[in-house]
Structure formats: structure tokens, C-alpha cells
Amino acid sequence: MAQPTKMNPKSQGSGGREVWGTRLGFVLAAVGSAVGLGNMWRFSYVASEGGGAAFLILYVALIALIGIPLMLAEFSVGRRTHLSPIGAIRQVAGSRWVPLGVLYVLTGFLVLSYYAVIAGWTLRYSLDGILGGFAGDPGVYFESVATGWDAIAYHLVFMTITIGIVMNGVQRGIERAALILMPILFLILLGLAVWAATLPGAREGYAFYLQPSLAELMDPAVLTGAAGQAFFSLSLGMGAMLTFASYLSRDSDLNQEAVTVSLSDFLVAFIAGLVVFPVIAALGLQDQVGESAVGALFISLPGAFEAMGGIGRIVGILFFVALAVGALTSALSLLEVVTSSIIDELRISRRKAALGLGVLIAAVGIIPALSLDALGLMDAIAGELFLVIGAFGMAIVVGWVMPNVAGEMKRGASPAFERYVPGVVFLVRYVLPVVIGIVLWFSILETIENVQAFFVG
Predict the structure, then answer these.
(1) How many domains is the chain built from?
(2) pTM
(3) What is the pLDDT of residues 214-227, one digit of tens each?
């Protein structure tokens, strides 16, 4: 049996590159990258729309067939090269594939620019709950604070926190934050799930969330949605897992880490659904919950929390704090992708890279802070289309271009995981390009519609 992974106790490896201090720190940071606002709301909604239990069955199967192999692919590239996306892709696939690495950096840059705006909303709502309670008319209130100077201010506050943590490095910044923030997130969600189980409408909420509809298993739309959620929720296709793996030691068990991160991410998303849907059912909000995460998170639920009185205010505060924590841990990985790439390519210090790029991202983020339409368009292009292209490119590079992929995946693996490596390589080479290609086709069509709607009005 392979020995448990031990990390270098120093902040830098033998080649001068930073390393994780502990395996737990890496796992929590990787889970934190995956867990975000999309997990804590989008997963629950898509599951209910996709037949509940049918969607969950497909999702778990696709995590095993797509999510874990794709994560292993990113881990393998990152650990082998000990480089950020641009340099890593260049080393394993050659200069002609460098645009793929550039796409990862561009995706992280653009996603963080508008993601920080939404994260700023979670900060504001957390403070609202603490200082004075939630607004009596949440719809009107959201319209007044979602864009404009208020949105810009909270966006900049969130970016300042993110920049400060990343400037401190892998161990003293990202890892230390993950070791503190992720246990807080888990505890808050577990506590809220226990409380939600006591609500009068809990049973109806669970039925809405988990109702079996096995006929949905054969619906191509449900399959496509589950496949898309499988790698969207795992923070794949944007170089984050590649970057985090570049700080791993050579003897780390990539297979074990991929399974642990994937299952932890699913568990957080699943528990979040056990919180949201009992609240929705208990207060009769089913008709108010639409496909927009914004409508549910920042209009329906705050109004519900306010209507519940004192306990609702406490629950609401905890809920939005959990959202803010999830948003922050994801934002750290986004900024790290961009920062590490500039450090590797231009050989400048971490503090200068994180500060300069963070300020630039914050400046670009003023655009979505002034327009929800612009935010939606950026999400459609960078948060959906670019991610799918990135995932497709990673499957091709690792499956067909990178040499000795199986050997890299077997390095440090226990016998229990090592026997599955040939099957994982088969999935990366033959299955992932087909499945992700299908998702990419639908993403292109949806992006075209969003772009036309934005410019036509």
C-alpha cells in the first residue's frame, strides 16, 4: 500500500516553487475551488427540474465517468510539470497548444470579474441580516443594490479580500484560508440542514428535490444537464485544478485526491439542497423559484427569512455567510490561476502579480456591477462556453497528446486505485471528448442566443 501523502514542510519545493503544507490543506483548497454559488443553488434547482432522483443517479454516474477522469487529467498535467496552465500545456503538448493555456487564464480572469460582483451581493446580504434584518420588499431592494455604486463598493471589498489572501502565497494564504473557511462552511450547512428538517414543509421539500421520475433518465436534455453540471461544479475546464496540482509533491496519490475532492463537492451541493427546498416548501415559494439563481437567492429566500421572524433572520445570516465563504474559496482559485501564470511566464513576484492582476480584474468587474445584462452575457461566454471548450481541450491533450499519461496517474497511487488507471485513460481518450463535445454543441447554441438577446434587446 502506498503511504499517505506527505507534503514538504517548507513553503517552497526544491525547484523554488511553492508547495502545499499538508494534504488536508490541498484537499480543502481544491474542494473550496469547486464549491461556490453554482453548487449551492444551481445544483439543487437543476436536480429538481431534471426529475430529482433520476438526475442524482445520472449526476453521480457522470461524476465517476466524466468528473473524476477529467480532474485526474488536470491533476496529472499540473503535477508532472509543476507549472501554471500556459507553461504546463506548452511542456506536455508543445507550443501549438499554448492557446489552450491562454484560454484557461482568460477564463479565470473574466469569470472572477463578474463572480466578484455576485459575491459582493452575498457580503451585503450577510451584513444586512446582522445589522438590521432583511428588506421587507426584497424584489425592490435587490433592484436598488444589484447594480450601481453599492454593487461596485461591495465588489471591490470582496476583491480586496481575495487579493490579500492570494498575495500571501499558497501555504500562508490559500491553504490557511481553506483550513479555516471550509470547516466553517461544512458546519453551517450541516446545522442548517438539521434545522430545515424540522420545518412543517420539510417532507414536501424533499419530495420536490428528490422525487423519483425514472423516465427522465432517458431524456437527452437531462443527460446533457447532468454532464454539464458534473464539470461545471467541479471547477474543471479553467485550469484551477491543474494549477493547484502543480504545488503537489511527486508522490501524491492523484487518484485518491480526485475521488475525495469530487465526493466532497457533491456532498456540499447535496446538503445545500436539503436546506433550500424545505424552506421553499414550508413557505410556499415553489412558483417563485425560477431558473435564475438571482431570483431565488436574493429575492425569494431573503423575503422568506424575513417573514419567519427572529429565527429566520439568524438562519438567513448563516445562509448568506455560507454563500460568501463558498464564493471566496472559489475566487481564490480563479485569481491563483491568473497570478501563477504571470509569475511563471514573466518571472515577477507573487505580490506584484496578485496585486496588479487583482486590480485589473476589479476594474473590469465594474462593467457587470453596472449592468445585469452585461453580467449575464459574461457568464454565458466565460462561465459556460469557455469552460466547456477548456474541458474539451484538456481531454484531447491528455488523451491524445501528452506522453505516458498512465504512468503519471499511477505515480504515488495505492494498488486499490492503480488498477483503475487504464480504465480512466480509456475514458479520457474516447468517452470524454464525445460527451463534452455534445455539451459544447448545446453551449454554443445557447451562447449565440444570449449574445443575440443582449445586442438585439
Answers:
(1) 1
(2) 0.90
(3) 676 667 767 766 77
